Here is the input.
Amino acid sequence: MKKTMMIALLLMVAVTFGLYAGGAAETAAKPTTTLELWHIQVNETAKRPIENAVRRFEAANPGVKVNISVIEANPYKTKLKTVTGNDFPDVFHSWGGSWLESFVDAGMVADITEASKAWKDQVSESAFALNVYDGKVYGSPYMNSSTIMYYNKDLFKKYNLTPPKTYSELVQVAETFKKNGIIPFALANQAKWPGAQHFVLLSMRLGGPDIFKRAIDGEVKFTDEVFVKAGEMLQDMVKKGYFPEGVNGIDYNTGGSRVMFYAEQAAMIVQTSNMLSIVKTENPAFYQNKLGVMLYPSIEGGKGKATDLLAGENAFSVSAYAENKDIAAKLVGFLSTDLQLMEEYAKGGAIGASKFAPVPADDPLLRDAMAQIANATFIQNFIDQTLAPELANMHKDTVQALFGGTMTAVQAAQTMQKTADGLK
Amino acid sequence: MEKKRSASVHLTALLFILPAFLVYTLYTASSIFRTFQFSLHDWSGFGPVANSANIGFANYVKLFADERFLHAIKNNFLLVVVSIVFQLSTGMILALIINSKNRGTKFFRTIYPMPLLLSTVATGILWLLMFNPYTGLFNGLLRIISPDVRLSWLGSEQVVLFAVMFVICWQYSPQYMILLRAGMTNISAEVYEAAVIDGANKWQQFWKITFPLLSGTLKTSAVLSIVGSLKYFDLIWIMTGGGPNGYSELMATYMYRKAFTEDQMGYASSVASSMIVISLVVIIIVQFMLKQKDNQ
Here is the structure.
């Protein structure tokens, strides 16, 4: 009796451990090359084209199997940092800039300089450059994104206004809207980055497009008069009522700013090009009839031009742990250049990374957005992907405080400089 | 013979404990120890920790001069106090309602625990929409009184913490209702009958019978509430992300921010280790105080 009990107990222990060991023992023999691909395009308009392109790649390369995992951006960032070695995806989504650099510095990204020579001149140069560190290539873009100033064409027509080209014209437009009970800019700033774009663009228009690059390189300080002036202008706009009240409590993802824009409570909105595909699925009639795109106006006496763009990329990189790096790099190249993929993106309102991406004749909005990128005089990568992570967070926090009026422009600038000094 | 038997009983007991003990050591105790180890390194979270510099207690020195973190501790303790006061009292009132023999209590017994059953993410987004300054429910109601209200519940540094704490209390009060109700059903009906015969009214019955006999449950609830508040994370992260400008930051959200958005895994580990120490100290003090009370 006692013996059976002991055996039962031992069995229990064995089973408990057996369960834990089970996960590791599953790896079956692989007859072909299997690639794990992770990306963040949860929106159907981009997810479907990527899926189709990958299937075409598989058909063209017999023996290659690609497993796609689609993860939302924020959980994706966390997940990628916590997987290691064998679990690390062979091909993974990246935003380039300082974000990818952390992974490159840790030796987790494969150098694809050689392989990329095959396709590099077909891809948008400014976006491609965001994946190059010390002359070595660590990724290639598959989709472009830029900051666009959207406006409601109907409202502009109704009050006889034209899209402002300069800041003083913007002030006139804004005052007219205010007089008629319309908020000039919709904004949902709970997540901080939507409002930060205003500050960045104001700084670029005042101090020249490379002002942030110069600040990062230490040529100018974050306490420079350009940043102080940009902060003051921003707070002036807030004070004049150019933004909704309480913007810091409005959430972008659940549509806080778009709802006001659709309802014609607000006339303009500064957002990434990603909003094009969102509006296209969310409110097709508005997209067709009322939505317009323009450039963020220049500032009289400022060193920057209206055509200096704030933009970013969606790219793919190859893992340093990938077993078959050549085929993985080939897939990255395919996704950067495949024209059918670019065409399918365009249908959904997204901008492909290829220089030869077909310009959709029936979609003037997307055409204009693509022209903004093609004609850009300077492209500044999104600031929160460019600054070191801690400084990027501080940048977003201080701009949010500027909107909330709890920090002065000088205090915000000093806080930024203090954080920058702390990083050295 | 007797001795031999007791030895084998011990062995059996040991074997029963062993699996759980091993899992606990592997997944909890060793993780705490590792976290402490990580906190002594200047580690970004990329690559093996052994490759990063061991900087001793430098992270802790930085941490206790970090205004953001000190503010987070303050917020955590405020949450502890608010949680104990409001969650336990609301839980008690709700428990009394569903424990009463009035008609319709069955209905309340079904709907009161609902906040607890909703997923936290859904709860967070729901309240996020209700707090929206333009389209939200709360400002909508306030506008009945004064048509120009544009209160930014989650965007104002003064209001944000109270707005989120209100939601946290809303979510967790039913948990204490369930615990306290369970405690109430354990109190024998005879005690109340005797009290009624002695002429005690409902109010006296509550303070002289229900409340003292629930003291055990209340203590457990208080400890649960304190621990829960000290390590609180989810609703804050969903609704405000610790903002605006760090005004609703808690220790756990600060840890997450440092670890996963700022690539400072070593520093984040020192936040985590401090959380463990702070929680332990608080719990020891509370337990000690509760024991003292028992001895009196």
